[in-house]
Protein: ABC transporter ATP-binding protein
Amino acid sequence: MTEAAISIQNLSKTYAGGKRALDGVSFDVPRGQIFGLLGPNGAGKSTLINILAGLVNKTDGSASIWGFDIDAHPRNAKVSIGIVNQEILFDPFFTPIETLEIQAGLYGVPRTQRRSMELLRAVHLEDKANAYARTLSGGMKRRLMVAKAMVHSPPVLVLDEPTAGVDIQLRQQLWEYVRSLNEAGVTVVLTTHYLEEAEQLCDRIAIINHGKVVANEPTRELVGRAQEKVVVVTVDRDLDVAPDAGCFDKVVLKGNRMLEITYNKARVNAGEVLAAVTRDGLGIVDVSTREADLEDVFLNLTRAST
Structure:
């Protein structure tokens, strides 16, 4: 099917008191992709997710999940999506297996079709199946939340800051599972403040700022918009102040001999930057460069729209 997994058109939300959290947001999440939804704190991401979850009423616009309008077909829309919230929400006195069984029951999954132990195995919690949930570590609780969101086998999974407070090993295990779900056909929507994760995982990224979409492009194209490049130069003598030149956008003296020079690669190249350094009579001992990444693009876009 070519229809979008999630389709959002002119979605707006104004809270009592006049705060406008979403202002005419429109974008589609293509089926079968890992889609990044990024933005600073307070940008409107959580409001949008809560509208999709049926926890917040929109003020205007429309949204559909797997072809089901959230107003016209709310039950079908809710069955089509699993959401892992930022907050860890489950009864601490139930075991993980009980948590999944109860959640499956709430979605009307027949006992013969429940996959509770299979899900616990997938998120590396099989050995904790009968432990009280309150005894689990923070990372384990996060993974239990992912399993809980998948009990009814939804075609769309939304992960809202799923790796906050999770150590590197557990984070890698979580992404391994998310990739396996995506390969099995699940569309994944991810919000995260770890921009390197978004750059590595996501096929496409939308950036929201102040309730508006400021970018929505395939990840490679979005990163390709960055024009800044950084060259780090080690020179052959101590400096009191950093030299300057017209081709530098910014220059920072790191220590006594290291210069971190930012330039616009659309205007000049690295050779011209290095030539400007040597014109001041400095010898170059070492050079390294850093290409712009998603963080650079994110900062430029969110600064530009403030």
Observations:
- The CA atoms of residues 108 and 152 lie 8 Å apart.
